[in-house]
Amino acid sequence: MESRGEKSVAGVKTFKTHQCQYCSYSTYFHYLLVRHTRTHTGERPYSCPHCPYRSSRKDYLKHHINTHASVTTE
């Protein structure tokens, strides 16, 4: 039974590869392709609520936000 980009070959599931439209990168996971594509487009959808910093990845933003917590004012 095939569904959503999955193919069955001799009873073994294989998965659809997602190909980057800008380069030769390919992956089995759509979310990785979306993340990779941002390296070409420059999209930075995640923004810091404390400063103008913007990031292409949510985990980078979380790490950045922690830098605000470690800054002390005198």
Automatic annotation (TrEMBL):
Keywords from the UniProt entry: Metal-binding, Repeat, Zinc, Zinc-finger
InterPro entries membership: Znf_C2H2_sf, Znf_C2H2_type
GO cellular component: chromosome
The keyword DNA damage appears for this protein: no
Organism annotation: Homarus americanus
Gene3D superfamilies named in the record: Classic Zinc Finger (3.30.160.60)
Single GO molecular function: DNA-binding transcription factor activity, RNA polymerase II-specific
C2H2-type domain mapped to chain residues: 18-45, 46-73
Superkingdom, taxonomy of origin: Eukaryota
UniProt-recorded name of the protein: Zinc finger protein 513-like 8
Gene Ontology process terms (BP): positive regulation of DNA-templated transcription
